[in-house]
Amino acid sequence: MRITIFGATGGTGKHLLEQACAAGHEVTAVVRDPARLDYDHPGLTVVTADVMDAAAIQPHVAGRDAVISAIGSRDLKPTTIQTDSTRSILDAMTAAGARRFLVVSNCGMLSDGDGPVTKHVVKPILWRVLRNPWTDMGHMEEVVRASGLDWTIIRPPQLTNGPRTGRYRTAVDRNVRGAKRISRANVADCLLRELADPGSVGKAIAVAN
Length: 209
Hints:
CATH class: Alpha Beta
Low-confidence stretches: none
Organism: Saccharopolyspora shandongensis
CATH topology: Rossmann fold
Radius of gyration: 16 Å
GO molecular function: biliverdin reductase [NAD(P)H] activity; riboflavin reductase (NADPH) activity
CATH superfamily: NAD(P)-binding Rossmann-like Domain
Largest sheet: 8 strands, mixed
Shape: globular
CATH architecture: 3-Layer(aba) Sandwich
Strand order of the largest sheet: 3-2-1-4-5-6-10-8
Number of strands: 10
Protein name: Putative NADH-flavin reductase
Mean pLDDT: 95
Distance between the termini: 28 Å
Number of helices: 5
Domain NAD(P)-binding: 7-198
């Protein structure tokens, strides 16, 4: 497939980039700073563009079989980075006639599928700390759902730097019971699996160990 990746210099994005290239996909990585991308592959094209500029990124999503965003924010202050970047990507895709979009979100902001301790004790505490990034992710998901494109949302819990095992649990439109963490490498693996599954279109998929 011809895939464009945003957030390719981040923790999950780097794994996604490498796994997609290794799988034989034709990959375009749209980055702000190419110097942060220490990876080379015959199937990889690196372009420099501002994701917030829909007109600038439109040529790089045109003709793509899929566009994937692994953009995230580590800032606990009020932020709209995921909402704004996703809206820009979707605007560019709509203008270019591209259809397939996958994005990384988070399962922490939701409680469907959680056990009682997680739902009533753990999540309220986490909300006090992570309210701002989780609120941004929630708004981002609303933008994705309203886009009219062929979208899939991937919702992991806490991310780790563990290896890619290909062994994890998933749940559709609800959280994985007992979800605590998953490696960034396995999130990348899940993104590529769901990309290949037409049944994932229009679904939010939680993934966890």
